[in-house]
Amino acid sequence: MMLGITQKNKDGWVVLELSGEIDMATGPQLRQTIVHRVQDGDNKIILDLSGVDFVDSTGLGVLIGGLKRTRSHGGDLQCVGLTEPLKEMFKLTGLDAVLSTEGSKEGFHD
Amino acid sequence: MTKGITLEIPAKAEYLSLVRAVVVSAAGLDPAVEDQRIEDLRLAVSEATTNAIRAHANLGSDERITIRCGLGDDRIEVEVQDRGPGFNPEKLKELGSLNEPERLQYEGGFGIPLMRVLADEIQIDSADEGTTVQLVVYIPPSS
Q1: pLDDT on residue B143
Q2: Which of A92, A99, A100, A101 best probes binding to B when mutated, by most B CB atoms within 10 angstroms?
């Protein structure tokens, strides 16, 4: 299972539209993408998770790592388009308290 | 268990999605199992298998991980068995909730706490020659 990543720019944010699953197999691909974007000076990142139907704890670790990396460079990382199972998992792990998931998905689409 | 399936996989991350798909399909054979419980099982099994793959990091690639999924009248049981070096589950550090600022220092350590929340029963037997994690999700009685 691959993770699809489509990159767009919108209002000063980099939007990464993700599709597939984020786990031990695909997490490194997302981590690398975030690292490269921040290295390029893009430290405000939106992850559009509407095409993601599964995230496990390895995937959560990647999101936390991305959040820390962007914030340490004066930016931020937000998630939009969470499916119900993902919302439940964010709640279970407390990630919803530290990672913004309230943004409107539509607001970042053309 | 009246019905069941056994998978043996190489300890490689690319097999995780296959394990999840097989367990979800097996659990879905009983229409009494609610979708949310299948999602719970999907995640819990993924966490157990991920830990098993990590436990095999220093073993040869011939060593396999075994996943057994059994469907009974009132429960689904999934057992994930690895041949890694084992650990003491009682000594795992409790990382607490993420909404504590210091929790952001850690990017891992969610796996076993998540399994404990998602499964109705969990048993972890770990020794020098390997670890077996048994996850149980109850099936509600048919109305």
Answers
A1: 57
A2: A92
